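Worked example

This section walks through a single chain of length 117. The input is the sequence exactly as stored; nothing has been trimmed or padded.
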Amino acid sequence: MSCFGGGPNFCPECGNVLPLPGIADVVCCPGCSFRIPVSEFSGQEIYSAVVFNPVEQTAVSQDDEDSEMKGPVIDRRCSRCNKEGMIYHTRQMRSADEGQTVFFSCIHCRYQEKEDS
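Given that input, the structure is written out below as C-alpha cells.
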C-alpha cells in the first residue's frame, strides 16, 4: 500500500520526484526500489523550460584616466615614483585557506602592484 499520494510525478512509496521517462520501458525511483512502467505515463505531455533572468545593462566607464581613485590611503612608498601614498583593496584570489591578495595603486602616478599576503 502506498504511503504517499502526490501525483504521477512522485514516487508513491517514498515521495521522491520520479525522473522523466527515457529510453527504458520502466521508470525507477532514485530513492527506493519502486519501479513503474512507462506505459503508465501515456497520454501525459512532459515538457521543460529554462528561463533566464534578463541581463541588465549598466553604464561602465572604461576611461581610467578621468576616473577618481577611491579607497583607503596608506603610507606605502611607490616603487616607480618613490612617493608616499597608495590606495589599496583586497581580493580572495587563491583558495580560502590562503591569504588575500592586496592590490596597491599609487595616488601620484597610478602605478599598480600586488602583494600576496
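What to look for: The chain has a mean pLDDT of 82.
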